[in-house]
Design brief:
Layout: E1 2-6, E2 14-15, E3 18-19, H1 21-38, E4 42-46, H2 57-73, E5 78-81, H3 88-91, H4 95-98, E6 103-106, E7 116-118, E8 121-126, H5 131-138, H6 146-158, E9 166-172, E10 174-175, E11 194-195, E12 205-209, E13 222-224, E14 241-246, E15 251-256, E16 263-269, H7 270-274, E17 285-291, H8 299-304, E18 310-315, H9 334-346, H10 352-364
Parallel strand pairs: 1-4, 4-5, 5-6, 8-9, 9-12, 10-11, 12-13, 16-17, 17-18
Antiparallel strand pairs: 1-14, 2-3, 7-8, 14-15
Helix pairs in contact: 1-2, 5-6
Amino acid sequence: MKIMHIADLHIGRTINQFPLLEDQSLVLNQIIEEIDKEQIDVLVIAGDIYDRSIPSKEAMQIYEQFLLAVNIERKIPVLAVSGNHDGAERLGHAKSYFKQFQYYLSTAIEDSFEPVEIDDVHFYLVPYIEPAYARDYFEDESIRSHEDTYQAIISRIEERIDESRTNILVSHLFVSGGAVTESERELVIGTVENVNKSLFESFDYTMLGHLHTPDAICDDKVYYSGSIMRYSFSEIGQRKGYRIFDLSTRKVTFKPLSFKRDLEVGIGTYSDAIALKLGVNQDAYLKLELSEMEAVNEPMAKLKQMYPNLLELKPILAESDHSIETRDVTHLNTYDLIASFYEEMTDNTLDEKQIDVLTAILESGGESLEA
């Protein structure tokens, strides 16, 4: 059996309000071509199918077309779990109906315990679960963290696991020590979302989503596929693609995907950018960090004429030579202290009206105006 593992599709994602639907459609079509080329038997999607809990109509149409091509036209089983970006209830609508077409979708705790059996392989599909939901489901007030949550779920799976079969866990979570980028929306504040990879020892393989780099964890049984595209400028340099698990040879490989446009960062002066001397692809999705823009009106509009996919412009401010002057003001009365401070901050002296007001306030408070 050959299994393709993908995750973090984030269909409907934008970067600085720029929509990526066209790019995502092209990448998903490329994945379909790779499914044919690699002769894949099963497709696993480890969460974050959509980027929002309520996806747009256009995002849903793109995913539907992908499913039709893989699951209906090619009759390839698709096994998916909901991630923290997905709206689990909405995504899981009609999941019982989908099973007859071998589209297996896990969006709730109760979906985790009965494996999907394909040949001699048992797939346990564990969606992203909040600790509060698990605490209520298991009626266990000690469940406070994601570690507690997945420990409770996996312990129940282990009670019925058939060790004579190949057992594969599919889930969407943050394994301790994994590499994070700007794109992974935090599950919670702090580190209580971390799960130790020792939880997965009962499984032959664990296929995960949430962290966007396939190199987040180095292990011979626990794997992230990473996201199918770069979704922030912090992901530049990361590999993007899919994993193949060949169970006949017990070999796991990573295969890269290509993109019509990629993300790039250009750094230099505004003049360099206008002269096309930044060394970036003009057609790429760009973030430019430029100096010498202080006197330029509407630099973004001017630069977009040359870099049509410029998504972010960050000024590099000239360093100022700040000096600190220390003065002894202990000999000044309150009036002189206020007048000195005003002059220091405004480069102006108090006018007659200000002097009258200040004098009246100080005298009404019993303040002496003599040094």
